[in-house]
Give the backbone structure.
Amino acid sequence: MNPSGGASTLEPIAVHWFRRDLRLEDNTALWAAAQSGLPVLAIFIFDKNILSRLKLRDDRRVAFIHETLVKLQSALAACGGTLWVFHGTPREVFASLFARFKVAAIFCNEDYEPYARKRDAEIAALCAQRAVAFNAYKDHVIFAPHEILKEDGSCYQVFTPYARRWLAKFEQHPPVVRGTPPVCWFCPRERPEIPSLEQIGFAAVLSQAPPATIDKALIRHYDKTRDLPAIRGTSRLGVHLRFGTISVRRLALVAHALNEKFLRELIWREFYQMLLWHFPHTVNTPFRSEYVGLKFPGSEADFRRWRNAETGYDLVDAGIRELVSTGFMHNRVRMVVASFLTKHLLCDWRWGEHFFAQYLLDFEQASNVGSWQWCAGIGADAAPYFRIFNPTEQQKKFDPDGNYVRHWLGDPLENPRPKPMVDHRFARERCLHFFSQRGT
Ligand code: FAD
């Protein structure tokens, strides 16, 4: 694990730094590393700066990464490579690699989140001091945040025109999917073990992530099944897009051929990535300036009832149970649950956003922040504050047989439900009044 010590190797090498691109196939930076002609050392860093902020010891995302690294290690071994996994801060790890090996270049794929941008700037600066090339590539998205802009060069703040432009560009320049690159691997003499979850401070749990397979039949019918939480009508590929265990290019090409609605969801993902890149302050500040400084009057006691699945609204409570037990919540239910917290209870959207961020296996900061602001009516192109979901009506419409709710809450005769914590009509009026005093 610790690269320090031992004789320094004088052969110039490249480092491929795996982050959210945990696959060999169609990996842009890995192709570039292969084409550099240098022997390539593959590394992954369990970043202490990120891990120290995680609250749950049984965090499923960490387990997912660990499971994936084990698979990646065997895939690399099969083609003559090895993966060196570190536990430290990127600065420490690279300083130590530079002391040990003659690193000529680092290859990695771009990550657009605020922390990642800061981290990469720091490592690029470290590289500059040592005359090491730092090469970052677009891989996580079809179009990087600066690639879809209005005629005047400014960025879109409304989804529909963004999506139109995105699609036109996609059709003009469809992405190319490549296989696994022919890399000349550099394998240091020692073959360190991947540290266990316990060694990096986490409990040995299983992520229970769905497989990284593209189900074409599901995608073909997605527009008809996507809103029904009781069935497997969505892809569950969020976690794989997040950690790069599938290629977004491959998925987008399938979606383009089979289902417009599915492709549109991938565009939403890039819309949110683009917004967070241009407006990083929106991580904890409303996008719409008229709501900056807005104090949500909802109480912590109400937030706790929501978080403990005790609101008395079955669809909301079932959604929270699904999230906490599996790390997943269906999109339709996410919308109702988030709307309930921010509009019925008038609780701060950041409380909900943080709660989701702790539990979601497919947590993406850009999508989570953007969607929470959308639901709360304070984001770019958000649902307006006067659109307030009625959780009972939503349940009738999208879980008409009650199968989803029964699955998560049990039979109502055996598991009596609490009374609704707030009357829908009262909450609706209160919300309209609250926002109409502040918004436009
Ligand atoms: P599918 O329906 O099969 O869609 C395929 C992919 O498209 C998804 O995996 C995802 O990458 C993307 N996608 C789908 N819907 C959206 C959307 N509305 N916005 C952005 N991307 C979308 N998505 C996340 O990936 N991470 C989050 O942290 C996240 N937080 C959310 C919080 C709230 C309050 C809401 C309302 C939505 C959130 N979403 C988030 C969006 C959406 O709910 C999930 O992407 C989707 O439910 C994941 O399930 P799936 O993989 O089966 O998606």
Remarks:
- The longest strand covers residues 9-18.
- Residues 60-78 form the longest helix (19 residues).
